Amino acid sequence: MGSSRSMLFFITLCYYYLKPYYVKPQFKFAQGPQNLRDGPDYTTGDKYEENLNSLLSSFSSNTQNHTGFYNSSRGQDSIKINAIALCRGDLSQNSCQACLNKSTDILLHNCSNQKEAIIWAEPCMVRYSHEVIFGSKQEDPLKYVHSPNPAKNPQQFEVVLTPLLDILSERAATGDSLKKFAAGHAPVPGGETIYALAQCTPDMDKKNCSTCLKQSVTEIQTCCGEKQGGRVLKPSCNLRYEVSLFLKSTANSLVDIPAPVPAAPAPEEAKKKSDTKQTVIIIVVALVVFVTIVSSICFFFRVRKRRVKLEQDENSEEINLVESLQYDFETIRSATDDFSDANKLGQGGFGAVYKGKLANGRYIAVKRLSKNSEQGDREFKTEVTLVAQLQHRNLVRLLGFCLKAGERILIYEYVPNTSLNHFIFDTTDHAHLDWETRYKIIGGIARGLLYLHEDSRHRIIHRDLKPSNILLDEDMNPKIADFGMARLFFMDQTQGDTQTIVGTYGYMAPEYVVHGRFSVKLDVFNFGVLVLEILSSKRISSFRNRDNEEDLLSYAWRNWRNDTVANIMDPKLTTGLGIEMMRCIHIGLLCVQENVASRPSMASVVSMLNSHSVTLSLPSRPAYFLQYNSGSDITGSDESNITVSGNKKSDFTEPYAR
């Protein structure tokens, strides 16, 4: 795709159909529409179309944007539209706007009435959707484009191509919030030169950008192996390489394979040139010192100016994201039938939860927060924005919020099967939880916590994990809910302290209750209690065991020590005490140990659940232990430490379960 053949090609994807528009004779595409999946549409002439036209036209008419990346939103609720546009990193502003003009015309013509669509042109991409797309890594839909011409020397070509793409991917991922782009070239033995680029939409963080591009490098082998050119196109990132120069310039980020080192000169010649070399070295050193000093001064002022600009752009991005999450109060009131009791799903310490239905037919869960919060509107919006960016199949998704005088409302996805609390403790419904379902729920909760602790953009500690905060979808997959007491950590922060202890007694670890210290191991302790409740169908609070009062941790530990583990399991489980059941009891006891350092991380817990070959250490006594007073042999100094019962109930009840 040389510069002498600069005609554009377009791939338009309306999330319904694939319609290619191109005039590149060396590339082959499927002709005609291809049905991909069902999706929503809008009516010609309605407010959604008006917002869409206005939003897309604002990109190509924005003369103040010199970065080549555009993102914004228009409208509210069901007529809200979010859009992103990205130009190739080497384009001038005029070339970028020309490409956006042409792309938006084609997009609106060929994807009319579609509520979400994407188009890739050779130098730019435009994407819009009624869903939140800013800051979300998206690798689907995926398109491959390759040249029909084979490389002259495929083996040598591959040896040069893969390292070149890897280097460019890393360089692009380290870009800032304005541009994540890298381009370069490298010679192939035999005369060909590979020109390549890697690019992400700048709303991706370094980790997500790197992951997207690295996966694209591996896909190059599948789609374009041994070809002279190829592209991998995704909504969040793209790769491209050719044997001819298709970029405007690669001067700022060249990647070259070093040329062979020339042979050393003969001794006689070296002697003749030694004096000249010494003179040249002195001059070069002096110039290097001078240039270094001047460059350092220039670099200082440039960094200072750039930091100010980055702060301004980040504030702008935050405002756009907040706007895309905000719902109108009248829309929420209408969806819940004015917060009627008939739609009420539950009542907790932080407010009531209602079932709602939007005008587009989508069901939502609406949490109307109590009015005693001292948090300001700006802090509330910031926290909502962070939680809304958490996306995992085992987390309840926060769709948005609503702010009105005296009202703070959170809008969540609706999960139909209410809470785990309803199933494991209800005398009629907990029989529906066979072992396979319970094991799936335990594994899903563990993966959701691992995402919060290690894989999300911010390290988050839930602090109130319990059965009523685990919702179940139609397939009985668990979703962690209610982040009202969650705490945000920086990724290198390991623990914190608080003067305000919030949570549910019995689930809170002793270091948190006594000293106010919290870390990811607080959630691990919560998880251990939850596992034992799921296995036994007994609450953590004290229960009658024969003639004695005993809490669940003490009961589980005593039976573990007495080799009567079968007593811990719910009698409704008739499949016998299998290896998985034994491992889950073992893991639960490891998680509730008194010593914080002895508790496993959630990454270790997930490994223990996924592989029976992982060796489990022996657990020590639980943090809260009530000595059984009926001739137990559990004695000694190591058994007489902290004694705290778990029978005090919290004010914080189910998030939205009947």
What is the end-to-end distance?
A: 62 Å
- Strand residue content: 15-25%
Please give the largest β-sheet: 6 strands, antiparallel
Low-confidence stretches: 1-8, 15-38, 257-266, 489-494, 626-658
Whole-number average pLDDT? 78
Seen as an oligomer or otherwise, the chain set is single chain
CATH topology term of the largest domain? Transferase(Phosphotransferase), domain 1
Fraction in helix: 25-40%
* Strand segment count: 24
Write the layout of secondary structure elements.
Elements (H helix, E strand, L loop, with lengths): L8 E5 L4 E5 L24 H14 L8 E6 L6 E7 L5 H18 L6 E5 L2 E6 L13 E4 L7 H20 L6 E8 L5 E8 L5 H19 L5 E4 L3 E6 L24 H59 L3 H7 L8 E5 L2 E7 L5 E7 L7 H12 L9 E7 L2 E7 L6 H5 L10 H21 L3 E3 L8 E3 L5 E3 L6 E3 L5 E3 L12 H6 L1 E3 H17 L6 E3 L2 E3 L1 H10 L17 H13 L10 H9 L48
Antiparallel strand pairs: 1-2, 1-5, 3-4, 4-6, 5-6, 7-10, 8-9, 9-11, 10-11, 12-13, 13-14, 14-16, 15-16, 17-20, 18-19, 21-22, 23-24
Name the features:
single chain; 658 residues; alpha+beta; Killer Toxin P4, Chain A; Phosphorylase Kinase, domain 1; 4 domains; six-stranded antiparallel beta sheet; five-stranded antiparallel beta sheet; 14 helices; 24 strands; 18% strand; disordered N terminus; disordered C terminus
